[in-house]
Amino acid sequence: MTLQMAPPTAPPAVRLHSVTKRYGDLVAVDSIDLEVPRGSIFGLIGPNGAGKSTTFAMIATLLRPTSGVVEVLGERPNRNAGAVRARMGYMPDVLGVYDDMVVDEYLRFFAGAFGVPASAHEDTIESLLELVDLAGKRHSEVNSLSRGMKQRLSLARALVNDPDLLVLDEPASGLDPRARVELRLLLSQLQDMGKTIIISSHILAELAEMCSEIAILERGRLLASGPPTAIRDQLGSGRQIEARYADGTVERFDVDGTVGQQALLRRLVQEGRELIEFREVGSGLEDLFMRLTQGEVQ
Amino acid sequence: MTALLSNPVLVREMRSRMRGRRAAVLITFWLAFNGGVLAVAYLGAENIAEDRFGFAGFANTVAISRGVYEWTLFAMLLLMVLIVPAQAAGAIAGERERQTLIPLQVTLLTPWRILLGKVLASVVFLGLLVVVAMPLLAVGYLLGGISIADVLAGAGAVLVSGLLLAALCIAVSTFVRRVQAATVLSYALVLALTVGTFIAYGAYAVVDQARGPDRTDPPDTLLLANPVALVSDVVGDFSNTELPSPFDGVYRLINDQQAFDVAVDGGAFGPEVARRQDGMPFWIASLVMLTLWAVAALGIAARRLDTPAETER
Ligand SMILES: Nc1ncnc2c1ncn2[C@@H]1O[C@H](COP(=O)(O)OP(=O)(O)OP(=O)(O)O)[C@@H](O)[C@H]1O
Ligand SMILES: [Mg+2]
């Protein structure tokens, strides 16, 4: 995965400064600070009810924070929502679709709603459908698409205005493993096109591989943020190693960092075990995540 | 103007309304019902007129043609009042229910343009209903008793009433989550305007009567927001054909002060449209009132739809 370095002077794609959102007595988002570098894929992870969608809605010009400052692409969504909307694509966590509408009409409708000139609709839609691999479904009814296809259509919709920033709320939920891999490839393709992507999930492993930075959210509070490896080191998590032997047996070990991993490998080899595979499982982050958020799932 | 018509919401609404059988079924029913009322009105008017005036007099033809025209128009108004809430209540509540509102709100469409697209779609659809019913109204014209101007004025009044009710129902739709709730509220509102105001008027009259035998009637203002009163003022008259008319009763109610004046100096051929005492015809005052209500309601609705909001919508 490429990690694109933005020029140091460019403001971050998204900046949250002690942002709080209350619903009555409930603090859905509790004074969080975040910076999403331009060109990055940024993952927001947390259990159900952590405040991910609420945070995204504030970034996506839908919700006003109770206090704090949100900045998106150098603009304040509260003051100049239009400027943000013009350069942002937002995919909510629910997939609303119109009855009896064909894929082509659906995208045309949103292209129109973004002020894309009618003369450009044809090319825009063709290349978007190509990108999300729905070219063959152009004249199918939206309602007849499978969930994964709807998800991809929803992503195509979010891309219809060629945004600089993509805000994707749980885009992988409900996708089968193959579709997840495809989504990951698609997102890194979009990253290569220079887009910044923010994505949420409650499955850490899903994000750890593709995100250049992640933030862990729980009960509205930010528990940790930074590059996945840094978070792991910062919080001193152990790693889990899986060793597979020639006789087909599998053994798991907990090790401490890189040094521990080396020592384990050396020991197994010295012991003369017929090792055919030796690998880190999960990323260790899953354990970390479970520990961090233990028992506090709402 | 082009900006108005290139509204993507309007285009989408038109498409989805016209697709499938629903529109065709509705238009067929609309024509069948109005046509049925026309036939009954024709036969009824002919019978009554024959009894009263004998065969084939001039007054006979005029009476029959007026009766046919008025009853057909009344059927159109009645049906429109029933159709509009069902058509308009889903405008925003439906987007919410299908969870399509949020994707719409993060586009560059403003709340006003979204609402306007919905209202325009209603205009086009109701306009279509009125246009396809024109041949029915033309029967009255062909019978010779009413003019083209009458036909156009009546059809226009029904269309405008439907449109203003639609705008109000679309505004209502903005404040609810469920289409079902929006439908109930819209029918309640339309019922309050069309029937409720008459009840209020009647109640006022009863109370007024109880206080003494003065000759003041309840204020017409009570009926200004009533689309039936609006259409009645445009269509009704003081003609004494003794044929039952759906509009003349309300017309006399609104214009009774003038009834005396007309009877005294205008005679049987007095002015078609009586004036209110302040000089403004009732229907203009009514139109202004309903338009103000509709615009105000849409304004509040636009604020309700505006994002970023305090809570997700
Ligand atoms: N409109 C609302 N009114 C009141 N409370 C709300 C509203 N929206 C969200 N909440 C509450 O705010 C908290 C955070 O919700 P949010 O949807 O942001 O969580 P999430 O991290 O996206 O969860 P999930 O993984 O289930 O999508 C929850 O406790 C939720 O009940
Ligand atoms: Mg969520």
Describe it for me?
The complex is a heterodimer of chains A (298) and B (313). In chain A, a hairpin with a 4-residue loop joins strand 10 (239-245) and strand 11. Helices cover 34% and strands 26% of the residues of chain A. In chain A, helix 3 (103-113) packs across helix 4. The model of chain A has no long low-confidence stretch (mean pLDDT 88). Chain A contains 10 helices and 12 strands. Chain A has 2 domains: 14-226, Rossmann fold (3-Layer(aba) Sandwich), CATH 3.40.50; 235-292, no CATH class. Chain A has 298 residues and is of the alpha/beta class. Chain A has helices spanning 52-59, 81-86, 103-113, 118-131, 147-158, 177-192, 204-208, 228-234, 257-270, 285-292; strands at 14-23, 26-36, 41-45, 67-72, 88-91, 165-168, 196-201, 213-218, 221-226, 239-245, 250-255, 275-280. In chain A, the strands form 3 sheets. Chain A has a 6-stranded mixed β-sheet, with helices on both faces. Chain B has 313 residues and is mostly helical. Chain B has one domain (2-312). In chain B, 75% of the residues lie in helices and 0% in strands. The longest helix of chain B is centred in the middle third of the chain and has 33 residues, at 111-143. Mean pLDDT of chain B is 86; it is low at 258-276. The A-B interface holds A 23, 57-58, 60-64, 77-78, 81-82, 85-86, 88, 90, 92, 94-101, 105, 109-110, 112-115, 157, 161 and B 6, 8-9, 11-12, 15-16, 19-20, 95, 98-109, 307-313. Bound molecules: adenosine-5'-triphosphate and magnesium ion.
